[in-house]
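Pasting as-is:
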Amino acid sequence: MKFGLAIFFQYNSAMATYTIKPLTDLDLEVFRKLASGYTSQEKYLVGKSETTGLSAITLELQTLKAPYIKQWEHDADLLEFYQSVLEQKLSLGCYLGSRLVGIAIAEKRDWNDSLWVWEFHIEPGYRYQGMGSQMMTQLAALAQKAGCRVIVCETQNTNVPAIRFYRKNGFEIGGVDLSYYTNQDMTDFEVAIFMKRYLPASRK
């Protein structure tokens, strides 16, 4: 199933004029630059308590003594998968002229009418200018037009800047998976946090 964005959106920030339009192609080196990783001065300490009558998962924000630095590696196989996702026409690119400085790679999951965001990134030098928020606004419009009831973004308890960005743009924590990556996520790795933005009734 394919959906289309009828027009392009052009915005002026304090530093540049940028255009948000459908993302139809992605170069591996450009993608690696955009999705290189993150640095956080904070993390959410994840706790779990469980009794017969009550089970609870808690997230407590803590300042780190040293920044948490995460670097991602991406290969051609992942890019090939994302190229197939782009065929749904629910992904967006943010451009300065012909230069791609932001991406939102998203896929509709028909079984539960959700828009799953695989990648959402702004090039570091162009953050905090409103590009990310404008992209998310247009992504929500696309999702609603496609009949989605919710947008889902996966992040980690160590990526506090991303969690703050999502909350600023209408998301809330909709799920926590204590073993999404490994069986030792709570003690030795990262805990997956699923941010969700619930959408109004579809206007298809």
